[in-house]
Task: structure prediction
Amino acid sequence: MLVLGIESSCDETGVALYDTEHGLLAHQLHTQMAMHAEYGGVVPELASRDHIRRTIPLTEACLAEAGKTLNDLSAIAYTQGPGLGGALLVGASIANALAFGLNIPVVGVHHLEGHLLSPLLAEPKPAFPFLALLVSGGHTQIMAVHGIGQYEILGETLDDAAGEAFDKTAKLLDIPYPGGAKLSQLAEHGDPSRYTLPRPMLHSGNLDMSFSGLKTAVLTLSKQVQAEHGHIDEQSRQDICRAFQEAIVEVLLKKCLAALKQSGMQRLVVAGGVGANKQLRAALNQAAKRKNFAVFYPPLELCTDNGAMIAFAGAMRLQYAQAAAAFSVKPRWDLSSLPAASSTTPSPLTDSTT
Ligand code: KG4
Ligand code: ZN
Result:
């Protein structure tokens, strides 16, 4: 089965081809970072318009890279949500129109399921069940993953996501958009022993987290430094970045260790943009050796948003649906569990957030 995947939920247009026999054949990405940089953040309308411009050329580039044509496709997968409504509609419209024209199935993928399954695109692959730390710009969750579609949330952030905390903290330290990755680069040159910031909810006794207070702590600290020195010199900025990163990494690490202990699992999968963070990876790798568990990551370039994870999750969903449809009976089937098919049933393209 050859699946075209289209990701357009935010500020990256990602297109990829995944073959269930031969793996990932091609993946192309266009990031809108430069376009949004002058506004200091993502402008949704500009994002949608850029997805319109990019999706077809990236699809053509993917097909050329893989030596395939549209007629070779078995199905199309697209990010159905969550994300920016207009941006999602671009990917959804193109995917549905192409699939209709080619008379092949189309499948809407949950963006987070894409991230969650992306470590299965690397070698060695984790076997089910595994524990997953999903750390993106919009979500921070610890999950028990029992199989495709069997996700149990064990803990999550009560406010800002880890990536969001990176981005907001970067902004208040005058680090230009997109700040998260740049903040972590500055942190590499920082002195971890100069400042200490709080570790929110480290001892909460559960697997929940909270990161919104950290940026306030950074703000207070940078005001102190400014008051002492008249300005924030480069070394102090790097030291503050380091203190912030130390705090986030320690919370994520300790919560993962607690989750492993609680669930008895021995495999940890890390997915989402913050999974690209070098210090987080180093801390998890060290702990894995010490505590004897295995840790898995997606390939580095597939940590942040991309089409490959959508093509892959779509392929898994379609295979699963095919297997279920091929031979499945329901000895106990509650009539009231059938989905409604009235005119009020939203079409796949309805934006349920508006
Ligand atoms: O998964 P992703 O591409 O998008 C969402 O689905 O949200 O994650 C983007 C997030 C951003 O908040 C970005 O600041 C963060 O991932 N990020 C990083 C790093 N690279 C990206 N955070 C910390 N360290 C990094 N190296
Ligand atoms: Zn994402």
Q: What stands out?
A: The longest helix spans residues 234-263.
